[in-house]
Amino acid sequence: MARICSCCGKKPHVANNVSHANNKVKKIVYPNVHRMRFTLAHDNSGKVFAGKVCTKCVKACKVVKVV
To answer: Which of 1, 8, 17, 35 is deepest in the core (most CB within 10 A)?
Structure first.
């Protein structure tokens, strides 16, 4: 399953794991995404979407979780 945020499009990226001896090994850093039902905060229509949203978008009030 794709680990991509439905709101901002954040996706996994590649970084280096650097040791004390300056050895570099590639690692994948995944965003903190959760599957939920949500509405867009700036849209007043109240249409409900289902998808994966990162926690940064939830904290920034870009989306509102539907209970």
So the answer is: 8
